[in-house]
Write a structure and sequence with these properties.
With about 450 residues, the chain is an alpha/beta fold. The protein has 19 helices and eleven strands. The chain has helices spanning about 5-15, 15-20, 45-65, 70, 85-95, 120-140, 155-160, 170-185, 200-205, 220-230, 245-250, 255-265, 285-295, 315-320, 350-360, 365-380, 395-400, 405, 430-445; strands at about 30, 85, 105-110, 165-170, 185-190, 210-215, 235-240, 275-280, 300-310, 360-365, 415-420. A seven-stranded mixed beta sheet has the order 1-10-9-8-11-3-2. α16 (about 365-380) packs across α19 (about 430-445). Its EC number is 4.3.1.18. InterPro entries: D_Ser_am_lyase (IPR011780), Ser/Thr_Dehydratase (IPR050147), TrpB-like_PALP (IPR001926), TrpB-like_PALP_sf (IPR036052). Its cofactor is pyridoxal 5'-phosphate. One of its GO terms (biological process) is isoleucine biosynthetic process.
Length: about 450
């Protein structure tokens, strides 16, 4: 149910951009409250917490390698995605969308992350591994000095079977939580909103998770999921709206990206800035990645979130300064989008509190562009990503179409652009073909 006309008018008078947002127009918003990373005060988290989190990933590497040998034997249990330079895609974007993208253009291929096939592997796996470690240490089953391959033993599975884990999800977070929880032996339930894709529900059930389906959106799934999970004696709910551990899991991506940029000879400094474009749902994944990037690269990295015109939850929260106190439905916006991972009506309190001080801006795009970028990327670079994962490709065009670069005193040809591709490798082939055809049809119109 939306606000009354009078209330909406009060908001639009104070924040005129809202008129365009409510009208489902594509917009670009720059954050007037952005601070230097050294001045951020919304969280007690720091780079030291990130380093501790990276150590947890290292401890669990033997477990991950043994549990998922096909995917992780070569990397020795480390879950990471490649960073690919995409010059042909840049040419396509410049040609088809009349862009003028200068500098380097890369795609961070979290669509290729092992096991879960999306960026959610970072946060979801980390949270479950962190919880499992805590329980095992408290029970005297392991110490941090042990070889964590022991987590594959039956005694650990028997122990974890006493505990239940729940999560509310539009899709990819549920896949990550479900797959890793089931592998460890937890009883896991995933509460999925109406916009979640059927193949994701089917895959979760195949992996051993219990899936509950709801007619409502993400907010309903997470509300009911939280209630049902916490009713159980040993219930643990993974709260995408307020989880520090999810956030930290995402943040460690910055360490790996720094190494990849160094290996490719990409300099990041005052004269050679990094522009990163992050698809945004509730805000936890992009917020955590952005937090990590800011800790590693300081003010030389500029992060932009992107949301569908039908689900600009974080944008509305930041623009009105109400954060999670308002949702898109309050303003008569549907929250219905083909970008299932971004179909969120209300932003995360925890993540937006931090993002308010760090994000350079937010832009929105129409759903049709998601499919167009999907087709262009497949044709130009032979990379497949799901629709919501393509949203970042609109960023270089949209930001360069403003005076942001000039105001920052930067040179367009010295910028390294990174589009964060958030998911896609687990999409069934038949579905891939349908999504690709939809993109090609849209481009030909």
């Amino acid at each position: 149910m939306s606000f009354s006309k009078e209330v909406i008018q009060q908001y639009t008078e104070k924040f005129p951009l809202l008129n365009q947002i409510i009208g489902l127009e594509e917009v670009v918003w720059f954050n007037p409250k952005i601070r230097s990373v050294t001045e951020v005060d919304a969280t007690e988290l720091s780079i030291y917490d990130m380093k501790d989190s990276e150590k947890l990933w290292q401890r669990f590497a033997p477990f991950l390698e043994k549990s998922f040998p096909e995917e992780l034997k070569e990397s020795k249990g480390i879950i990471e995605s490649p960073l690919r330079q995409i010059n042909q895609m840049r040419e396509q974007l410049n040609d088809v969308f009349s862009s003028n993208i200068e500098g380097n253009l890369f795609v961070k291929c979290d669509n290729e992350l092992s096991i879960a096939g999306s960026v959610k592997a970072r946060g979801s796996f980390f949270e479950i591994l962190h919880y499992a470690e805590r329980l095992a240490i408290e029970a005297g089953l392991i110490t941090k000095e042990d070889n964590y391959e022991k987590f594959t033993e039956q005694q650990f599975k028997d122990f974890f079977s006493q505990y239940s884990i729940g999560v509310g999800s539009t899709g990819n977070l549920g896949l990550g939580i479900g797959i890793m929880s089931a592998k460890l032996g937890f009883n896991v339930s995933v509460f999925m909103s109406a916009d979640a894709k059927q193949w994701k529900k089917d895959l979760l059930r195949e992996k051993g998770a219990t899936v509950y389906e709801f007619d409502g959106d993400f907010s309903e799934a997470i509300k009911i999921g939280r209630e049902k999970t916490l009713e159980q004696p040993n219930g643990y709910f993974v709260d995408d709206e307020d989880s520090e551990h999810l956030f930290l899991g995402y943040s460690t991506a910055a360490f790996r990206l720094k190494k990849q940029l160094d290996e490719q000879g990409v300099v990041v400094d005052k004269d050679h800035p990094l522009f990163v474009y992050l698809p945004c749902g509730v805000g936890g994944a992009p917020g955590g990645i952005m937090f990590g990037l800011k800790q590693v690269f300081g003010d030389h990295v500029h992060c932009f979130f992107v949301e569908p015109t039908e689900a600009p939850a974080v944008l509305i929260g930041l623009l009105t300064e109400e954060k999670d106190k308002v949702c898109v439905q309050d303003f008569g916006i549907s929250n219905r989008t083909e970008a299932d991972g971004l179909a969120v009506g209300r932003g995360s309190r925890f993540a937006t509190m931090i993002s308010e001080q760090l994000v350079s801006g937010v832009y929105t795009l129409e759903d049709k562009h998601l499919f167009e970028f999907l087709a262009l990327l497949k044709d130009s670079e032979n990379i497949f990503v799901e629709p919501s994962a393509t949203a970042g490709f609109y960023g270089p065009k949209q930001i360069s179409g403003t005076d942001y670069i000039a105001k920052q005193g930067l040179k367009a040809d010295q910028i390294t652009h990174i589009v964060w591709a958030t998911g896609g490798s687990l999409v069934p082939e038949e579905e891939r073909q349908a999504l690709y055809r939809k993109g090609k049809d849209s481009l030909e119109k």
